[in-house]
Amino acid sequence: MTGDSPAVRPEPGTRxxxxxxxxxxSPHWMHDCVYLGSDQxxxxxxxxxxxxxxxxxxxxxxxxxxxxxxxxxxxxxxTFNAEPATYRVYIDIAWDVRWEAGEPTGxxxxxxxxxxxxxxxxxxxxxxxxDEHRVAYGYPLGIVERLETLAIxxxxxxxxxxxxxxxxxPAAWSARLQALGSVAPDA
Length: 187
Description:
- By secondary structure, this protein is α+β, with helices and mostly antiparallel strands.
- It has three helices and ten strands; from the N terminus they run ββββββββββααα.
- Residues 1-7 have low confidence and may be disordered.
């Protein structure tokens, strides 16, 4: 992952906006969240139920509390959702996820690994979007191969509940989010 040194990370409890874009630079999702801190897996962010997530043409409040891991590799983020959210785990395969001007930012690369609570199981999602965009945006072959391999590896880890995709690791960060109380995102 490229980006700022650990010294420029905000203090835990600081509100930030996680900004996603597409490969061509166009805006994508923005999530109101709070920086929670870091551990051996990377940096963690929290979002309380009702906080805003939006992109061009779509705007909705988070269904429940969630915590998101940004690993040092910068090639994915993993969001762990509390109930009633449909997905327990939602991994965005990404590129160049990093700190920029004190906030997290990255390129959404379409593929997702999801673990649904409704009995559908664990799978790699949005392969159709991936196939369409890798041609339309001209993703370099080396990146395509790397991210396809990563998605398969992450799917295996989620199936095996290997840390940090176990229950205990995100639960500790969810507890930190709860301990912050009613901190509100910037309006």
